[in-house]
Input
Amino acid sequence: AQTVTQSQPEMSVQEAETVTLSCTYDTSESDYYLFWYKQPPSRQMILVIRQEAYKQQNATENRFSVNFQKAAKSFSLKISDSQLGDAAMYFCAYRSPYSGGGADGLTFGKGTHLIIQP
Amino acid sequence: NAGVTQTPKFQVLKTGQSMTLQCAQDMNHEYMSWYRQDPGMGLRLIHYSVGAGITDQGEVPNGYNVSRSTTEDFPLRLLSAAPSQTSVYFCASSTTVHRSWNTGELFFGEGSRLTVL
Output
């Protein structure tokens, strides 16, 4: 079974600065999906960014980018120019492309609580 | 588009009571699932379904029952609620991962907060 580890329960950053959230995962598969989801106080799960393992290029969505290191099984999220609206729980998640055995679902890390200091 | 709709959004139960959390999606997704979220635990998979008539257990299935009679609906039943089932519940759906156009993304409902006294 796959596991996802987020080693930072909480992070704090000054508004307008850059912060990096860490995520590592364990898998024996060569192809898979990785995600970062944001959960603000409204508790809605919002997709921030997605990476497919066969793509070597790191995904970028505006101020959000990832550093995907496949060999190291690492998938960190960088938020540039942090804004007050970025304050939320951030979850790293893994999804297998293979059906069956519960593998169709997402495996989540335990989350990182991001605080933005004004 | 409504996306994934969960009801109710809040519910308080007494120990031993039963209830059903409803989930409906209008995106014609084959895959539907239920997660529970507890502080410090992330989201954990309870049950999932890859199509009408097909369901299977996830990581934490005990105390929960599901069925999938239509593509659109995937209700979660608590037969005899226990305080340990106090949690936030999320329904999520997607196309199945073997579809060539699948992006892998799960689409989530807004969550249901359940308190069992």
Observations:
- The longest strand of chain B covers residues 42-51.
